[in-house]
Amino acid sequence: MIGQLIAIIRQTLETGNPPAANWTYDLGPDGKIFIDCASPPYQVTREDRNGQCVISTRLETLLQMLQHKTDSVTVFTQGGLRLAGDMQLVRKLDILFGTHRPVQG
């Protein structure tokens, strides 16, 4: 499942316009994913580093958000998402990955 998640992140970075920044997805017992887009080539690693913002959630939840099965607002209000650091960067990432849109059902 972590490989699928990393593939989605990489594809989005390649086709989107990521901010020149770095951030971390803290997936609890599943570890961390550190993304560095400060300059090409963009790096997506399993390093235990904290970026300019840290988005903490479960692996399954992040995958559902990136697959547009749920959205960040719903997950956040239900307590399944914690944010730390640069909130402007968090908003840019939400738009980049399309996780801010309500799921149409």
Explain this structure.
The chain is an alpha+beta fold. Helices cover 37% and strands 20% of the residues. It contains 4 helices and 5 strands. The protein has a 5-stranded mixed beta sheet, covered by helices on one side. A hairpin with a 6-residue loop joins strand 2 and strand 3. Helix 1 packs parallel to helix 2. The protein is globular. The chain starts with a helix and ends in an 8-residue tail after the last helix. The mean pLDDT is 93.
Features:
4 helices; 20% strand; 5 strands; 105 residues; globular; five-stranded mixed sheet; alpha+beta
Gist?
The protein is α+β, with helices and mostly antiparallel strands and 105 residues long. The chain contains four helices and five strands, in the order αββββααβα.
Record the SSE blueprint.
Elements: H1 2-15, E1 22-26, E2 32-36, E3 43-45, E4 53-56, H2 59-66, H3 72-77, E5 82-85, H4 87-97
Parallel strand pairs: 1-4
Antiparallel strand pairs: 1-2, 2-3, 4-5
